[in-house]
Design a protein that fits this description.
single chain; mainly alpha; two-stranded antiparallel ribbon; 2% strand
């Protein structure tokens, strides 16, 4: 079914994202499982042998999850723009942009962390180190600052993956796309959090809590907890990636349509332009509507 690439309401973003998620469920689960199933095996072995998964978490969270998210964004955008990629192709393209994504993450972390460190030192010097008021003031100032930058840089992943940008350019591009759209992006992400919490996180937490109550201190309880948690990641990570991709394209359209002329290098590394006859976007049935995408 062809859908026009046009500005969407928040409800339409979720409708389109959930439709994509359901129609391509097998592909999305396969991509997530390809990255996370080996981590499940390692986590279970780590829990059995060392009674902790801390080492596996150190590998999974900063490295494997980033790779999986990048591959998912590429695969979903390929489907969304009617140029599907195989799992191998999606991860191969992701690896080519992996260092840029890591660089952008480091730069964003420094941009958040350094000012807060300076602020903490200034407050400590003015008010006095160890004072509880320092922590209160720092928290009141830090939370909105972190949330603001988090929202403005939410599009780092799709801009780097889909436009083949470097780290600094990816940060700037995300800042541009979310400019004037802060509450819209925050609303979408807040609803996504509530959706994943009630549909996946809450049931899995209840299940693990029940296991701990029924079989307290048993090794099998820890193993089942690890497996259930990872299965929750396999279910939720593709949904977050789908919503991110739909929101990314919506933000591009909302830049008065001009941004649709920007280069898109996602699928084969070659510069492509959006046009009425571009094989990425498919046919345009009405130039006033814009390019069409297949859901």
């Amino acid at each position: 079914m062809l859908q026009e690439l046009r500005p969407l309401s928040i409800i339409e973003i979720f409708e389109r994202a959930i439709r994509l998620y359901c129609h391509h469920f097998a592909l999305l689960m396969s991509m997530a499982a390809w990255a996370l199933v080996p981590m499940i095996v390692l986590a279970v072995l780590s829990e059995i042998v060392w009674h902790t998964t801390e080492i596996v978490d150190w590998v999974q969270n900063p490295f494997v999850l980033v790779l999986a998210q990048g591959g998912l964004v590429l695969a979903i955008s390929g489907v969304y723009l009617n140029q599907p990629l195989s799992i191998r192709e999606a991860y191969r393209l992701c690896l080519r942009r992996y260092l840029s994504l890591w660089g952008a993450s480091i730069m964003a972390g420094l941009a958040i962390g350094i000012p807060l460190m300076v602020l903490a030192l200034v407050l400590g010097a003015v008010i006095g180190p160890g004072e509880a008021s320092v922590l209160v003031i720092l928290g009141l100032l830090a939370v909105p600052y972190i949330v603001y930058l988090f929202i403005r840089w939410l599009m780092i992943l799709p801009t780097i993956m889909l436009e083949d940008l470097g780290a600094a350019d990816g940060l700037q591009r995300s800042w541009y796309l979310t400019g004037g759209m802060f509450w819209r992006v925050a609303g979408v992400w807040g609803l996504l959090y509530l959706l994943t919490f009630f549909v996946v996180s809450l049931p899995t937490s209840a299940m693990t809590l029940g296991m701990n109550l029924l079989l307290p201190g048993q090794a099998i309880t820890s193993v089942i907890t690890v497996i259930v948690t990872q299965l929750g990641n396999i279910l939720t990570m593709p949904l977050a990636a789908v919503v991110t991709v739909v929101l990314y394209h919506d933000l591009r359209v909302r830049k008065k349509g001009q941004d649709l002329r920007a280069p898109l290098r996602a699928m084969d590394g070659l510069e492509k332009e959006f046009s009425a006859h571009d094989p990425i976007t498919g046919p345009c049935i009405d130039p006033r509507i814009g390019p069409q995408v297949q859901i």
